[in-house]
Amino acid sequence: MYNLLKGKKGIIFGALNESSIAWRVAERAYEEGAIFTLTNTPVSIRFGTINDLAKKCKTEVIPADATNLSDLENLFTKSMDILGGKVDFVLHSIGMSLNVRKGRVYDNLDYDYFKKTLDISALSFHKVLQVAKKLDAINDWGSVVALSYIAAQRTLYGYNDMADAKSVLESIARSFGYIYGREKKIRVNTISQSPTLTTAGSGVKGMENLMDFTERMSPLGNASADECADYCITLFSDLTKKVTMQNLFHDGGFSNMGMSYKAMSQYNKSLE
Ligand SMILES: NC(=O)c1ccc[n+]([C@@H]2O[C@H](COP(=O)([O-])OP(=O)(O)OC[C@H]3O[C@@H](n4cnc5c(N)ncnc54)[C@H](O)[C@@H]3O)[C@@H](O)[C@H]2O)c1
Question: What's the gap in Å between 56 CA and the centre of ligand 1?
Fold first, then answer.
């Protein structure tokens, strides 16, 4: 390990169980010398295994619904108490769509569910940033990262209203990144991660086929949750101090592919 986060404090949202990307980030942050608090909704804390992660990383879990401003205020205040000062990094690893869960397709959305998708998966990022800024809870040159997906830019079958949420999420990183950067030198970025088998990931229609497709189309193959965690660590570290307002693709090259040799050969075979 490289001690990349030695002396740094943070808050990690979204570890539900061992497959969660946030879980892997917490493990890596711990290895790199950071101290941090963990958070999730009360229901996810009850049904998931985040308390085991907390034990492993010698830390505490503070319940918070990321759509609720007073929960977020409590989370930042308590985290600063526990950690002994302002934080240096925040990971937003949160996503949920009731339309996806209940099988409502994109041309037959339930609008109450749609609002919830946007609130949980996108506006919560703004809420986290706004609460942190009002409480002056992040040190200068701190780093805030949220996890996104390429469906923000391109239509991928089955991603449904989460695509709209991810577009808003990435836009918030730019808009808030400008203000937070100008005033506090705090960077705000999103990482656009390969499809990954997690609880949220498995909810996407045709996930296994999609993963197979992106694996074959990407010159480097899909990026795993552990590899995503490594990338997050670099963004929390002082090695990326001038990276802000970006959507950073972490997908083995998938986002810049058009047609691959393998796909072309397969296409030719099928035509025959
Ligand atoms: N798995 C993938 O294929 C993939 C690909 C790209 C991006 N992402 C993104 O990565 C992030 C993490 O997802 P994951 O794949 O690790 O799945 P996951 O199911 O392990 O994590 C999603 C988390 O969101 C939390 N959450 C839901 N509602 C919340 C709320 N109101 N307040 C606070 N937390 C809430 C859940 O409790 C859960 O811990 C999400 O933003 C997801 O969209 C996932």
Answer: 21
* Cβ-based neighbour number of residue 216 at 10 Å: 14
Instruction: From 20, 70, 126, 254, give the residue whose CB has the most ligand 1 atoms within 8 Å, as the site to mutate.
Output: 20
The CATH architecture assigned to 9-271 reads: 3-Layer(aba) Sandwich (3.40)
Return per-residue pLDDT of the chain as tens, 272 residues: 899 999 999 999 999 999 999 999 999 999 999 999 999 999 999 999 999 999 999 999 999 999 999 999 999 999 999 999 999 999 999 999 999 999 999 999 999 999 999 999 999 999 999 999 999 999 999 999 999 999 999 999 889 999 999 999 999 999 999 999 999 999 999 999 999 999 888 888 788 999 999 999 999 999 999 999 999 999 999 999 999 999 999 999 999 999 999 888 888 887 76
Contacts of 91 (CB under 8 A, 6+ apart): 10, 11, 12, 13, 14, 22, 25, 145, 146, 147, 232, 236
For the CA of 225, the closest atom of ligand 1 is 16
Give the span between the Cα atoms of 9 and 250, in whole angstroms. 24
Pocket test for ligand 1, best of 40, 74, 94, 209 (most atoms within 8 A of CB): 94
Domain range list for the chain? 9-271
What pTM does this model have?
0.98
Q: In angstroms, rounded to a whole number, what is the distance separating the alpha carbons of residues 20 and 14?
A: 7
